[in-house]
Amino acid sequence: xxxxxxxxxxxxxxxxxxxxxxxxxxxxxxxxxxxxxxxxxxxxxxxxxxxxxxxxxxxxxxxxxxxxxxxxxxxxxxxxxxxxxxxxxxxxxxxxxxxxxxxxxxxxxxxxxxxxxxxxxxxxxxxxxxxxxxxxxxxxxxxxxxxxxxxxxxxxxxxxxxxxxxxxxxxxxxxxxxxxxxxxxxxxxxxxxxxxxxxxxxxxxxxxxxxxxxxxxxxxxxxxxxxxxxxxxxxxxxxxxxxxxxxxxxxxxxxxxxxxxxxxxxxxxxxxxxxxxxxxxxxxxxxxxxxxxxxxxxxxxxxxxxxxxxxxxxxxxxxxxxxxxxxxxxxxxxxxxxxxxxxxxxxxxxxxxxxxxxxxxxxxxxxxxxxxxxxxxxxxxxxxxxxxxx
Length: 390
Ligand SMILES: *Cc1c(COP(=O)(O)O)cnc(C)c1O
Known about the structure:
Elements: H1 5-9, H2 16-27, E1 33-34, H3 46-56, H4 71-85, E2 95-98, H5 101-112, E3 118-123, H6 128-135, E4 139-144, H7 160-165, E5 166-172, H8 184-197, E6 200-204, H9 226-229, E7 230-235, E8 248-252, H10 254-267, H11 273-284, H12 288-311, E9 323-327, H13 334-345, E10 347-348, E11 350-351, E12 362-366, H14 371-385
Parallel strand pairs: 1-10, 3-4, 3-5, 5-6, 6-7
Antiparallel strand pairs: 2-8, 7-8, 9-12, 11-12
Helix pairs in contact: 3-11, 4-11, 5-6, 5-10, 12-14
Bound molecules: pyridoxal-5'-phosphate.
Residues 38, 100-102, 126, 172, 176, 204, 206, 235, 237-238, 243, 248 line the site of pyridoxal-5'-phosphate.
């Protein structure tokens, strides 16, 4: 047998090499602190689990769900958008459930791309935007996210012939891996650009609730004209520590929502209703757990930023997401620096190159270990590599 040409183009698993190193270190009895994992370490809040447990007892929830989600689920999503962002959504035509936002992000390409098409993809970024594109026989055009531009793509630098060919533009703020948050001008510029070239905007808002210093991140759908050109992908994964439950949604443009729903109705049978009830409880129940989650990450972020500054980094604290993105010191590549930190300090950081070619020269620290352990990781790094230069 032989995998097809498209599968042959999928990159090998990024962390394979580093995982081998972790195993070697563990075999030698070295205590590893893993700052590489982009998955919340805290449990799902109790009231959400309790709601799911109750829903589990109801046989009505044991059957095939609707592939676009229960209407009550879509209504809760719309109600959350109204409360949180002041955005009005028609739950029937402007919201579709997803088996996690990753599923929808990967499948939206199959809904809108023909072989040979182009998408506009940030670099560095979450790999799924490019992967979805490649699986359709289309080509991602990489938009560099540079520190000097606040990690926002420069739409004016995209050649007109590329923009004319592009079918989808992916954006993601608060951003993985850079921690950047977008401003109003950027979203407005994106909408104007989409209108000019007839491009579908796909905003990945997975981290909209993970913002710091009391400065809430905004939804793309808050901006005038957004619904005419785009959809937003979201989920309860990061906000409520529910990455394992696999439930999300796409919301916004009714045509894109309908096409995605129709595509999904042909290949999956929706999200387990028990999980939809859990997500409804998450969105409509008490929200102090979200405030606690933000404080927890903010305290960890401050430990990382302070530690890096002591060693000579001059970095700003990221305004959102669960990541700190920082340049590697002089003389290192992102891979060689990650290897040094693992070997000398027993700390795993992620090499920037894993998120795209413009991630080279950077590393990512995930804020997914507790504060004391985080402090220990930074102290170990300081002891092992001392002052750094750039
Ligand atoms: C974690 C993450 C998601 C969330 O994926 P789910 O499928 O909803 O769990 C989406 N986008 C980015 C950039 C992420 O880091």
